[in-house]
Amino acid sequence: MSKDPTNHPAPSTAAAEIDAPAFPSMRSAESLLFQLIRSLGRRHRKRDGFFWGVVSSRCGLGSTAATGLCRKAGVDPETGRGLAP
Question: In sequence order, what are the residues at sequence separation of 6 or more whose Cβ sits closer than 8 angstroms to the Cβ of residue 56?
Fold first, then answer.
């Protein structure tokens, strides 16, 4: 039998259980981000400028990424309103 040079114990099945999510009902990061974008859209006013600018400043993104994120979330990047299907 060879010894482990690092002297660490053999991994157990309990280590695999650690990788399981603690909250299985937790929503994905993408759905939480889309909810954030939509909630920003509900509070957006014209005097705030283009909606993508609000998303850009709140999420720390550039204009192109903020515009793309708005479109992916189904929100118009200029007005902050929902896009028509």
Answer: 62, 63, 65, 66
Q: pLDDT value at position 62?
A: 93
Residue type, 34: F
Distance between CA atoms of residues 21 and 7, nearest Å: 29
Nearest CA to 57 among 71, 72, 44?
A: 44
Report the alpha-carbon angle 50-44-39, nearest 5.
120
At 10 the three-state DSSP class reads coil
pLDDT at 75: 87
Summarised one tens digit per residue, pLDDT across range 42-69 is: 777 777 788 899 889 888 999 999 999 9
Using the predicted structure, report yes or no on whether residue 12 has a pLDDT greater than 60: no
Q: Where are the alpha helices (DSSP H) in 20-73?
A: 29-43, 51-59, 63-72
Which residue reads 């705030």 in tokens?
48
